[in-house]
């Protein structure tokens, strides 16, 4: 049988769709970070991005995927976000967020 990319349960599926939208917002936040016009705008973008990573860290389990052992569309949505982890200046964005860092 083909693995499901969404949970079978409708409520769990709706939650994952919400996290997919959240992942898109994180990616947009990274774009804001890179396009900050000045130091103040950069600081605001970093704070907003840090807040989103804190939210994400609070809901992540032991993994390795968003839903634990099952790879899903949420993981695919966050793929483009993770590619920036090597180039985003640390500057406190990930400190203490062990699940996001993993």
TrEMBL record:
UniProt xrefs under Pfam families: GST_C_2
Q: Which Gene3D superfamilies match?
A: 1.20.1050.10
Which InterPro entries does the UniProt record give? Glutathione-S-Trfase_C-like (IPR010987), Glutathione-S-Trfase_C_sf (IPR036282)
- GST C-terminal domain segment(s): 9-102
Instruction: Output the PROSITE patterns linked to this UniProt entry.
Output: GST_CTER (PS50405)
Q: Which residues form a coiled coil?
A: none
**Name the UniProt record assigns to this protein:** GST C-terminal domain-containing protein
Native organism? Hemiselmis andersenii (Cryptophyte alga)
